[in-house]
Specification:
Distance between the termini of chain A: 35 Å
Radius of gyration of chain A: 20 Å
Strand content of chain A: under 5%
CATH architecture of one domain in chain B: 2-Layer Sandwich
CATH topology of one domain in chain B: Alpha-Beta Plaits
Shape of chain B: rod-shaped
Number of strands of chain A: 2
Helix content of chain B: 25-40%
Largest interface: A-B, 15 and 17 residues
Oligomer: heterodimer
Strand order of the largest sheet of chain B: 2-3-5
Distance between the termini of chain B: 110 Å
Shape of chain A: globular
CATH class of one domain in chain B: Alpha Beta
Number of helices of chain B: 4
Largest sheet of chain B: 3 strands, antiparallel
Structural class of chain B: alpha+beta
Helix content of chain A: 55-70%
Order of helices and strands of chain B: HEHEEEEHH
Chain lengths: 342, 203
């Protein structure tokens, strides 16, 4: 909260506030890309990257980044030059901007606005726009197909995502994510369970299931990675990108994964609250718990990636419109009834 | 409605079953061998590289003849009577200097056929597989332990002895012939002995 800095130069305060999530995203992306490869390796009884940097190849991502920086920046001749170059940055900017409303700890939130969730959902739909932009500007059939698929699936899955977020808002009565988190403090349920929304209401467990499926779709993760499905579309909207611009896409994708996981943590798993009540709680522990829960969700996403095969486009649409949307709205009504009765 | 619920339940169950399988593999130790640091012990009888224990070789040339691709090149020189090359570890007397024993591993097809005929078991496969070369000629392995000077000396000696032996043989032959002629002159042989003499002359 900028006000709490008092007499510090406001520009400096804004910079500090902007740099904290950026640092987290950049470090996380390096670790997560290495982690994803390790998880893939372990699940397939391999070792994963094992050479760079000594202990279990921890420096692999850094080496990859250095390689990508050195690469030539190639723009296809017939591509729409400006849009092609601009798309990756817009994509990253969209997922980075959404971090502003996430309460990382009880004393740190980028921007304390009362319509936090609304802002987050609005800004992440820019992601779709940048994916279509990349797909269209590349002037490549695979890119275009990937972009179109992405548009289709993101537009459809916004509905269940927003509806499940709405179920939580029905319970919390606030769009401010800090308030939502504060409502989940304490350990009162059955005497020992933390006051997290997932434990407060049985229908919110179903809501979380639907929310998790939707965020898998929104962050283009297997089994819903149709926009970039390697075996069908080469790399989807990323096909024509190389070097740092491609790295920006990867960064944005991993940032998006973290963002949506953290949103899920805030809405269902108590945000920065410690699972042990007042034990190990505090502003610094808040950072720890918030990121730990987020990383656990990210790990589950990786785990699913190396377990399930990809859905077909029509199956994806059927799951969304035929099952998830009706289920979410029925669930929303049930949650509301539960709130009225208890 | 019921089918949707039933199908949804089967889907969920199979997803969680699959995730259970993957998480079990996640905690299993990896099967990877970190190759340059850890090396797998080759199985018994692995055919990786030919080796010749030159001390045991008697120069019989059986391996070279067994080779289907002619990758073994042996040159032997008969030892002169003044040297004793000793015996192999299996007790066979050695009679030849091995002036050349080359195996071209670039040609070798790893059939292992050369190892069986060897009477002293001195040619065999060793479990060594890291011998790639940039130049193909480096894959020709020279097993002869004689220096070029020694080879020349041995060859010279052997030639001399061969010459002497040839002369000796010729001399003996002449003597024999002379004797035979003498005999034939001194007393006429019975008719039955005639063909024998003729054969001698021819040889």
């Amino acid at each position: 909260m900028i006000e709490s800095y008092g007499n510090i130069n406001p520009v400096l305060a804004v910079l500090i506030h902007a740099l904290i999530p950026l640092t987290i995203i950049l470090v996380y992306a390096l670790v997560a890309i290495w982690g994803e490869r390790k998880v893939a390796g372990f699940i397939q009884d391999r070792l994963g990257p094992h050479r760079v940097g000594g202990w279990h190849g921890w420096a692999q991502s850094i080496a990859d980044l250095l390689k990508l920086i050195q690469k030539e920046d190639i723009v296809p001749k017939d591509a729409s030059r400006f849009l092609f170059k601009f798309a990756p940055f817009m994509m990253f900017a969209a997922s980075y901007a959404a971090f502003a409303v996430l309460p990382f700890s009880s004393w740190y939130i980028g921007s304390m606005i009362d319509i936090g969730v609304f802002y987050l959902i609005a800004i992440t739909s820019v992601l779709t726009l940048s994916v279509i932009m990349a797909g269209w500007a590349s002037n490549n059939k695979w890119s275009l197909l990937g972009g179109m698929r992405s548009a289709a699936q993101l537009v459809s899955y916004e509905v269940p995502t927003i509806a499940t977020v709405l179920t939580v808002i029905v319970v919390s009565g606030s769009l401010n994510l800090m308030t939502v988190t504060e409502l989940q403090s304490g350990n009162d349920i059955l005497g020992f369970l933390p006051n997290w929304f997932i434990f407060q209401n049985p229908f919110l467990i179903i809501a979380f299931g639907i929310f998790f499926i939707s965020i898998l779709v929104e962050s283009h993760r297997v089994p819903f990675d149709l926009p970039e499905s390697e075996s069908e579309l080469v790399a989807g909207y990323q096909t024509e990108y190389s070097g740092m611009r491609w790295a920006m896409f990867m960064l944005a994708e991993y940032a998006d994964m973290l963002l949506l996981s953290l949103l899920g943590v805030t809405l269902f798993f108590g945000g920065w609250n410690s699972p042990f009540g007042s034990f190990m709680s505090g502003p610094a522990w808040g950072f720890f718990w918030f990121l730990l829960k987020g990383f656990l969700l990210v790990f589950v996403m990786m785990w699913i990636r190396w377990t399930l095969p990809r859905y077909r486009v029509d199956q994806l649409m059927h799951i969304c419109w035929g099952i998830l949307i009706p289920a979410t709205f029925i669930n929303l009504i049930l949650v509301a009834l539960w709130e009225v009765v208890f | 409605m019921t089918t949707v619920i039933r199908e949804g339940w089967t889907t969920l169950k199979s997803i969680f079953t699959g995730m259970g399988v993957t998480i079990r593999h996640f905690f299993k130790p990896a099967v990877t061998e970190l190759y340059p640091e850890e090396k797998v012990e080759l199985p018994k009888g692995a055919r990786a590289k030919l080796y010749v224990n030159i001390d045991d070789c008697i120069g019989c040339n059986l391996c070279a003849r067994a080779c289907p691709v002619n990758c073994i090149d042996i040159e032997t020189v008969l030892a002169t009577s003044d040297v004793d090359l000793g015996k192999t570890s299996t007790g066979n007397p050695k009679r030849f200097w091995l002036t050349q024993f080359d195996i071209d591993m670039a040609k070798c097809m790893y059939c292992d056929l050369c190892t069986f005929p060897c009477p002293t078991d001195c040619i065999y496969m060793v479990p060594e597989y890291e011998y790639s070369e940039f130049d193909r000629t480096n894959l020709i392995y020279h097993f002869s332990d004689l220096t070029p000077e020694k080879v020349d000396e041995v060859k010279e000696k052997a030639e001399k002895e061969a010459e002497e032996k040839k002369k000796e043989r010729e001399r003996k032959m002449k003597e024999k012939k002379a004797k035979a002629k003498d005999k034939a002159k001194s007393k006429p042989k019975p008719k039955s002995k005639q063909p024998d003499n003729k054969e001698d002359e021819e040889s």
